[in-house]
Amino acid sequence: MSSSSSTAMANLDVDCKTLAPIWETLATDFVNEPSVLIAKVDAEAENAKALATEQGVSSYPTIKYFPKGSTEPLPYEGARDEKAFIEFLNTNAGTHRAVGGGLDATGGTIEAFNSIIAKFQGKWADGASEAKTLAATLQDKYAEYYVKVFNKIDANQGYAAKELKRLQGLIAKGNLAPEKMDDLISRSNILRKFISDDAEEKNEL
Predict the structure, then answer these.
(1) Where would you tag: which of 23, 37, 121, 189 has the fewest CB atoms within 10 A of its CB?
(2) How would you classify residue 204: left for phi > 0, otherwise alpha for psi between -120 and 50, otherwise beta?
């Protein structure tokens, strides 16, 4: 249920018809998160009884969260609905999922870069230099995208708004693979960080 490369949320139950469809939906919501595993264990199956005893399962369903690299679970005591499960996993696993499986408004964004944007608003060349230095210290695929936007917007003040409009058009067309949709939403979220509220409102009109 847990490994060094992923977190796991396990539902140890015998038969819970109410929770089953919600649990299946949750698994679908996180299908594009390689670091999160949603698991279900039949605690009365012969090959699972030892695990249920080891985990101290005495009632059904029992839900536990295993942090990445740990065999010590955290009990889940929140509401048993899709929204509550997603919020719990986002908080504990560092994910950015929304109800329905898409990304929320923070998906793809990196707070350290957002701070650079706020610091160098309008002084994009200076921001680009600091962003490049930061990107060299991070292993995040969107770090370089932040640097790219800094450089583009320094050369063309309207770049972020125009690119956001282009990406939103692609998203609106639909028929995209889930991974591609995640990527476009992540890039859109980052672009919004470079645009003032007034500029984005004007761009959407």
Answers:
(1) 121
(2) alpha
Q: Angle at Cα 30 formed by Cα 147 and Cα 32, nearest 5°?
A: 50
The Cα-based distances of 176 to 37, 100, 166, 192 in angstroms read: 24, 15, 15, 21
pLDDT in tens, 152-182: 999 999 999 999 999 999 999 989 999 999 9
Give the chain as a 3 state SS string: CCECCEEEEEEEECCCCCHHHHHHHHHHHCCCCCCEEEEEEECCCCCCHHHHHHCCCCCCCEEEEECCCCCCCEECCCCCCHHHHHHHHHHHHCCCECCCCCECCCCCCCHHHHHHHHHCCCCHHHHHHHHHHHHCCCCCCCHHHHHHHHHHHHHCCCHHHHHHHHHHHHHHHCCCCHHHHHHHHHHHHHHHHCCCHHHHHHHHC
For the stretch 48-75, pLDDT in tens is 666 767 666 666 777 889 898 888 888 8
